[in-house]
Amino acid sequence: MIRRVAFNLFAWGIVLAVAFPLFWMLVTSVKPQFELFRRPPTFLPETWTLEHYIRLIQDTPFLTYFKNSIILSTATTLVVVAISTLGAYSLVRFKYRGRESLAFLVLFTYLLPSVVLIIPLYLMLVSMGLSNTIFSLVIAYTTFALPYALWLLRSFMAGIPEDLESAALVDGASRMGAFVDVILPQLLPGIISTALFTFILSWNEYLYALVLVNSDSARPLTTGVMNMLVSSFNIEWSLLMAASVMMSVPLIIVFAFLQSYLTRGFGAGGVKG
C-alpha cells in the first residue's frame, strides 16, 4: 500500500513538473502586459485578456508562418510515409543482394548530426534553383525524417505474417493488390505512428529552416516567430507566449485525432472476405 502511494505521488510529481511550463505559458498568454513583470508574480491573472492573440493575428505575419508550417509538415509527412512504406516493404519482403547493408546504411544516415548535411543540401538546392522556398524545406526535412521512418516501418512490416500475403497471391491477387488489401491494413498502426512522428519532427524543426529560408513568405513558425518577436534588445514575452500556445494547438489536435486510430488495423486485412 505504501509503495503504491509513493509511486502515485512520484508519478504525479513528474506529470506536474512536465505540465507546469505548459500551464504557465497558457496563463502568461492571457495576462495583461502590466501583470507580466509584477513582483511577486501572480499565479493566475487578475484580469484575463485575449489582446495578445488579437495583436498576434492582426499586427504580425503569424498566420503566414502558420500556413507555411501546415503546408510544410503535411507535405513532408505524405512524402516520408509514402516512400518509407514502399521501402520497408522492399527491405522485408524482397530478397536481393546487399539488402541488409542498405538497411544499415539508411540507419547510419539518421545517426549523422543534422548540421553535417546543411551545406551540401544548401548547395544542391541553390544549383537546382529551389533555395528559399517551402519545397526546399520539404526536401531537407525528408532527408532526416525518412531514415528513422523507414526503420520504424521496417520493424512493423517484419511483424506481419508472410502467410497472409501468400494466401492472397494464391487466391489470384496481384502483388500490388495483396500489398493494398492485406499489408496496408495490417501496417496501419505503424503508418499512423510514423506519420505522427514525422509531422511533429517537421513542425518543430528549426535549424534547416533557419539556414535554408530567409524570406517571410516561406518561413515556418519556428524561425518566423523567433525572427519576429525575439531580438538582441527586446523579447515580446506576451506575444511569444500567445504564439507558443497557438503553435502547440495543431500538435495536440493531430495527436488526439490519430491516437484513436493507433490500435486500428491490427487484424484488419487478415480475414478473407
What does the model show?
- There is one protein chain.
- 73% of the residues lie in helices and 0% in strands.
- With 273 residues, it is mainly alpha-helical.
- The chain has two domains: 2-49, no CATH class; 62-259, MetI-like fold, CATH 1.10.3720.10.
- Residues 264-273 have low confidence and may be disordered.
- It is found in: Cell membrane.
**Main sheet attributes: strand count, strand direction, barrel closure:** none
Mean pLDDT score, rounded? Answer: 83
CATH class of the largest domain: Mainly Alpha
Number of E-type strands: 0
**What is the C-alpha radius of gyration, as a whole number of Å?**
23 Å
Query: What is the rounded distance between the termini?
Result: 51 Å
Number of domains: 2
What fold name stands as the CATH topology of the largest domain?
MetI-like fold
Helix content: over 70%
Low-pLDDT stretches: 264-273
The fraction of residues assigned to DSSP E strands is under 5%
Q: Which outline best applies?
A: globular
* Secondary-structure arrangement, i.e. CATH architecture of the largest domain: Orthogonal Bundle
What is the N-to-C succession of helices and strands?
HHHHHHHHHHH
CATH homologous superfamily descriptor of the largest domain = MetI-like
Output the structural class: mainly alpha
User: How many individual helices?
Assistant: 11
Keywords: Cell membrane, Membrane, Sugar transport, Transmembrane, Transmembrane helix, Transport
Transmembrane segments: 7-27, 70-92, 104-128, 134-153, 182-203, 237-258
Main location: membrane
Organism: Jannaschia seohaensis
